[in-house]
Design brief:
Radius of gyration: 23 Å
Distance between the termini: 29 Å
Number of strands: 4
Oligomer: single chain
Structural class: mainly alpha
Strand content: under 5%
Helix content: over 70%
Length: 370
């Protein structure tokens, strides 16, 4: 009975935090902009942060809940960004031009066949999701069926990230080479340089982030989510009881990858550029640090970690840019050593100690009165 009451109370607190978070960033921040308290560059910056939060939620499902350390998640993020970039490149071609400039330089007179699905927004979204699902599903299934995990899985995905970085950097891929895709002005008929359009993109990003968080929360609370935690805690025990562990691992790997791709699709219009540098190994490691710092195995931790690290990045690179890699490394080492469950775990430990101290103090007062 007491346990049910505690769970109900915790659920109410989580719901109130969720509503307060949405109210602050969907209502208060735009109102602050309209009132002249903040500027549009700050709004856009927060929009980018929330794109990273979406990707961090996907990482947490794979690593935090299932125990699979993925080091190629930035690649899936970039699949979504490149998909949107291809659509926007076609939509922003000068009048009379059949291909972008970087194709003309390679003597290409018409769009390659794999660009054709990106002529429309529905085709872009569907193709981006399907490609992400096929790549992540194939990779995951081939690795998981051989029971490769831990450090070996991390090394393989790290190698994939490096290979994709090198591949996308080549001009022969017809994706802009090392310069990537850029020089966008319009999305549909909306001017991306307009402050109102930037505000609209920010609001859309927050709404999508809230939906992803809500859906991911439902996944973790479902039977599927409990099995994921079981895989993390004891994969061999689940295999012994008859669960098709490979199918669950592949499924969560696909879900996490698609979530990252959605974040990438929202990221590009707010940034205006996507290059292979966004998918290198370091970018994927940073995503792991976001989740580790906030607290893996807890979606709130993924949100907190992604926001905190990226805010620190913006501040530190403005004040002392050369020191940022050392700061990031220090944060990761500190989180690995203590506390192991990140800031969420540290908060829980402090709360428990405060509750224990308060309880002992009450007991002491009662015994003294008696």
């Amino acid at each position: 009975m007491i346990e049910n009451t505690i769970n109900t109370t915790d659920a109410k607190k989580d719901r109130m935090l969720y509503i307060a978070f949405i109210a602050i960033f969907i209502v208060l921040l735009p109102v602050a902009y309209k009132a002249g308290i903040t500027d549009i560059s700050t709004i856009t910056l927060w929009g980018r942060y929330f794109c990273f939060v979406i990707a961090a939620i996907g990482v947490d499902l794979i690593w935090g809940y299932t125990g699979i350390m993925t080091m190629c998640h930035a690649f899936f993020f970039c699949i979504g960004a490149y998909a949107m970039g291809m659509y926007m490149t076609i939509g922003n071609l000068p009048e009379g031009a059949a291909v972008p400039d970087f194709m003309k330089w390679n003597q290409i007179e018409s769009l390659p066949f794999f660009w054709l699905p990106f002529k429309s927004m529905p085709g872009t979204i569907i193709t981006g999701i399907i490609v992400t699902g096929i790549v992540s599903g194939t990779l995951g299934y081939l690795i998981f069926r051989r029971k490769i995990k831990g450090v070996f899985f991390a090394i393989i995905t790290q190698a994939l990230a490096l290979a994709m970085y090198l591949l996308f950097s080549r001009n022969e891929t017809m994706l802009g080479g090392s310069n990537g895709l850029t020089n966008f002005r319009y999305l549909f008929s909306f001017d991306l340089h307009s402050d109102n359009v930037k505000l609209g993109m920010y609001v859309v990003t927050v709404i999508v982030m809230a939906m992803v968080f809500y859906l991911a929360g439902n996944i973790t609370k479902s039977k599927f989510g409990k099995i994921l935690v079981g895989i993390r805690e004891s994969e061999s025990r689940l295999r012994f009881t008859g669960y098709k562990v490979v199918n669950y691992q592949t499924a969560v790997f696909i879900i996490g990858a698609i979530i990252a791709a959605i974040g990438g699709m929202l990221y590009l219009p707010q940034t205006g550029i996507i290059t292979p540098g966004r998918m290198d190994v370091r970018a994927s490691i940073e995503m792991l640090i976001w989740v580790a710092l906030g607290g893996r195995g807890n979606l709130k931790g993924a949100v907190i970690g992604a926001l905190l690290v990226n805010i620190l990045y913006s501040v530190c690179t403005s004040l002392f840019p050369q020191a940022w890699p050392y700061i990031l490394g220090f944060l990761y080492i500190a989180v690995v050593l203590y506390p192991r469950n990140g800031l969420i775990g540290l908060y829980s430990e402090i709360s428990e100690k405060v509750k224990s101290f308060t309880y002992k103090k009450i007991q002491y007062a009662d015994s003294k009165q008696s």
